[in-house]
Write a structure and sequence with these properties.
two-stranded antiparallel ribbon; 6 helices; mainly alpha; about 220 residues; single chain
Length: about 220
């Protein structure tokens, strides 16, 4: 995809939400109708890895926040006890929890930075996957359209030929009917029956006659 086209698409998509395609069942259903290209497979794998990493970091962030809250909740009563007793042991416990809270803050900041990077990477790969998906789908649409046009032309030609052959069929049936009728009138049924035994018209060339009131319909 050319850079200028990418810029046009990016401008058109600015401010619009793009779903994470590999998490969308309808996106997967597209590939029951068209083939998944190697580019799409590679981008889908990359996107899935990023999404999995994002989910892992978010889970870790929740766990760290839970631990931080626990440490904070424990410090308040410990500080009250330390103020009353002046116990060095309690002061050590407070110090240890304060240290853990600091570690939690550092980890949260690190996770937050990584989540921001992941968010940008996910959008970038998702965008590229969308473009490759659209290219694959439109290529299939164009191929199908070309085949549809060719088949439609073939069907139209066959219809014309079919109509011509139906007319020829009716003309030949009428000719047989007229021939047989005139032969009966000229030679008589007894002579015709003798020839019928030899030529077996019912098997080799059945004689049909038009139905009354409709010249396009015939009976044996």
């Amino acid at each position: 995809m050319a850079r200028n086209n990418d810029e046009v698409y990016m401008s058109a998509l600015e401010g619009k939400s793009i779903p994470i395609l590999t998490l969308d069942d309808k996106w997967h259903q597209l590939f029951t109708q068209t083939e998944m290209t190697p580019e799409i497979e590679a981008l889908a794998d990359q996107l899935n890895s990023l999404v999995e990493r994002d989910a892992k970091i978010r889970t870790e962030t929740k766990n760290i926040k839970r631990l931080k809250k626990k440490m904070l909740d424990e410090i308040v009563p410990l500080r009250d006890q330390a103020n009353r007793s002046g116990s060095a042991k309690i002061e050590h416990e407070i110090s240890e929890r304060t240290r853990l809270i600091g570690e939690c803050n550092d980890k949260l900041a690190s996770r937050q930075d990584e989540l921001l990077d992941l968010s940008r990477d996910i959008y970038d790969v998702d965008y590229k996957l969308m473009i490759e998906t659209m290219k694959a789908c439109y290529e299939t649409l164009h191929d199908n359209t070309d085949e549809i046009k060719a088949l439609d032309q073939w069907v139209s030609q066959v219809r014309v030929e079919l109509k011509k052959n139906v007319i020829r069929l009716q003309e030949r049936e009428m000719e047989n009917y007229n021939l047989y009728s005139y032969m009966h009138q000229i030679f008589g049924p007894e002579v015709i029956e003798l020839f019928d035994l030899k030529y077996d018209p019912d098997r080799r060339h059945p004689i049909r006659r038009p139905l009354e009131g409709d010249e396009d319909d015939y009976v044996e």
